[in-house]
Each structure stands twice: as structure tokens, then as C-alpha cells.
Write a structure and sequence with these properties.
About 55% of the residues lie in helices and about 10% in strands. It is of the alpha/beta class. It has two domains: about 5-80, Orthogonal Bundle (Methyltransferase, Methionine Synthase (B12-binding Domains), Chain A, domain 1), CATH 1.10.1240.10; about 90-210, Rossmann fold, CATH 3.40.50.280. Strands 2-1-3-4-5 form a five-stranded parallel beta sheet, with helices on both faces. Strand 4, helix 8 (about 185-190) and strand 5 (about 195) form a beta-alpha-beta unit. Helix 1 packs parallel to helix 3. The protein is globular and about 50 Å long. The structure holds cobalamin. Cobalamin (B12) binds near residues 49, 59, 63, 108 and 201. Cobalamin binds near residues 101, 105, 146 and 180.
Length: about 210
């Protein structure tokens, strides 16, 4: 029997060898990739985050859980329903310089791809000037950046400044997201969009591409 709670438990406990098999069982049982990603894998990471905050878990356990999550995520991401093609933008996406947390960025990328966008994924810990260069080279409409850490929020502000200095503000739109960000923060730095989760990333991309 396929069981979402079991998958959550596997990720939380870092039982890495079991993650692929249980994800496959869920997919075989007809559970959608989206449900697995949002109700299973992401939920497990929330629990891991809580345990880390309570000092029940330390970095090695968090890392093991993240690696376990990726076993399932890599199986589920290609199976996301890509039927809808509401947007047809060109988007650079990455995690800003100084931050290596890339799980959320990868989920956003998959959903944005599914929505019909051409994505240029620069990975994590990406130097800010490289982000701008790529955006120019690929003639993108949107730069989407992610960060989960407070110190690296400054990089997002810097990107807005660099765009303004290059006369590109408003021409290339920006959207920001990740645990350290908020709608207020996005507004305060002059970003064009913000999203709480990957579904909202798609909503924001569609909105920004219309304007
Ligand atoms: C997993 C994890 C790790 C893993 C990361 C593995 C990986 N490949 O990503 C490892 C073990 C490597 C790690 C390392 C560290 N971590 Co850590 N980590 C976490 C943890 C537990 C979960 C993060 C996660 O993956 N969540 C699940 C995903 C699905 O959620 P998400 O990323 O938020 O993404 C969703 C949304 O935010 C949104 N979204 C994301 N990006 C974008 C972009 C756009 C444009 C939009 C619209 C939306 C959007 O959509 C996503 C999907 O719906 C968090 C705890 C937490 N509460 O977040 C700490 C946490 C982020 N880590 C933290 C810290 C401090 C660190 C370290 C500095 C620890 C250390 N002392 O070394 C290092 C970082 C080193 C570095 N320079 O980056 C802190 C950050 C605190 C802060 N505010 O600055 C947190 C909050 C833990 C804590 N409570 O202290 N970590």
C-alpha cells in the first residue's frame, strides 16, 4: 500500500534507500507528482526544519533528509503535469550568491517549465553579476531569484540596483521568493513580484508576462 505518511517519515528520518521506492509506489497508485511534492516531500522538510530549530536535529541530519528528499523529488519532478501552457516567457532562475538551499528553487523551476516557460537555471550560490549577464544574453523577460537565508537578502536588493544602473529596470522584471523573503520585502526592494510557494511563482510569472 502506498502511503504519503510513510514517505514523509522516510524523508524526516533520512532513510535514503527507501525514498525512491516509496515515491514510485505513490505514483503507481495514482497519486499525482504535485501531491507528492507539496503534501509529501515539502511537508517532510517543514518537519525537518522544526526539528532543526528545536535542536533535535543538527546539520548532518538535515543534509541526509535533503538528500533523501531529492531521491523522491528527482522521480516526481519529470512527472509533473505539463499540460497547461499559460505562460510562454523566458526566465532566468537561481539561488543568489551565498546560499546553497536549492530544493524550493528546483520545484519552482519545474512548475514554471510545466506552465510553458523556457527556463535558464543557473543553479545555486550564483554571483549576482552572472545573473544579470545571463538575463541579457538570453533576452529573458523575468529574473526569478530564491533565498532562504537572511544575510543573502541583500543580494536581491543589489540585483534591483544593478538593473536600475544598467537602464533595465522594468524592462527585465524580477520576482523573488524563498523562506527569507516576504511580500513586504519584495516591495521594499522594488521587485516586481513575490510568491509564497511554487504555485504562486507560476501565478506571478503569468502576471508579469502580461504587463
Ligand atoms: C534543507 C535545509 C538545508 C540543507 C539544504 C540542502 C539543499 N540542497 O537545499 C543544508 C543541510 C545543506 C542546509 C545548510 C545550511 N542551512 Co539550512 N535549512 C534547510 C531547511 C531545514 C529546509 C529548507 C527546504 O528545503 N525547505 C523545503 C522547500 C520546498 O521550501 P522552500 O525552499 O522554502 O521553497 C518553497 C518556497 O519558499 C517558494 N520559493 C522558493 N524559492 C522561490 C523563488 C521564487 C522566485 C518564488 C516566487 C518562490 C520561491 O517555493 C518553494 C516550493 O513551494 C531550512 C528550514 C526552513 N524552515 O526552511 C533550513 C534553513 C533555511 N537553513 C538555515 C541555515 C542557517 C543553514 C546554514 C547556514 C547552516 C550552517 N551553519 O552551515 C547552511 C547554509 C549554507 C549556505 N551558505 O547556504 C536557516 C536560515 C536562517 C536564516 N533566515 O538566515 C534555516 C531557516 C534553518 C533555521 N531555522 O535556522 N540547510
Amino acid at each position: 500500500m502506498a502511503n504519503m505518511d510513510l514517505l514523509i517519515d522516510i524523508v524526516v528520518k533520512g532513510r535514503i534507500k527507501e525514498a525512491k521506492g516509496e515515491t514510485q509506489k505513490l505514483l503507481d497508485a495514482g497519486v499525482t507528482a504535485k501531491e507528492i511534492i507539496f503534501n509529501g516531500l515539502s511537508k517532510a522538510m517543514e518537519i525537518v526544519g522544526e526539528k532543526y530549530e528545536k535542536k533535535e536535529y543538527f546539520l548532518p541530519q538535515v543534509l541526509l533528509s535533503a538528500q533523501t528528499l531529492y531521491q523522491g523529488l528527482n522521480l516526481a519532478l519529470p512527472k509533473l503535469d505539463t499540460a497547461s501552457a499559460d505562460a510562454a516567457g523566458r526566465i532566468v532562475i537561481c539561488v543568489v550568491e551565498g546560499d546553497v538551499h536549492d530544493i524550493g528553487k528546483n520545484i519552482c523551476k519545474a512548475l514554471l517549465t510545466g506552465a510553458g516557460n523556457t527556463m535558464f537555471d543557473m543553479g545555486r550560490d550564483v554571483p549576482l553579476k552572472d545573473i544579470l549577464q545571463k538575463a541579457k544574453d538570453e533576452h529573458v523577460q523575468i529574473i526569478a531569484t530564491s533565498t532562504l537565508m537572511t544575510p543573502t537578502l541583500a543580494g536581491m536588493k543589489e540585483i534591483e540596483k544593478m538593473l536600475a544602473e544598467g537602464g533595465l529596470k522594468g524592462k527585465i522584471k524580477t520576482m523573488v521568493g524563498g523562506g527569507a523573503t516576504s511580500a513586504d520585502f519584495a516591495k521594499s526592494i522594488g521587485a516586481d513580484g513575490w510568491g509564497y510557494d511554487a504555485n504562486e511563482a507560476v501565478r506571478e510569472a503569468i502576471r508579469l508576462l502580461k504587463h
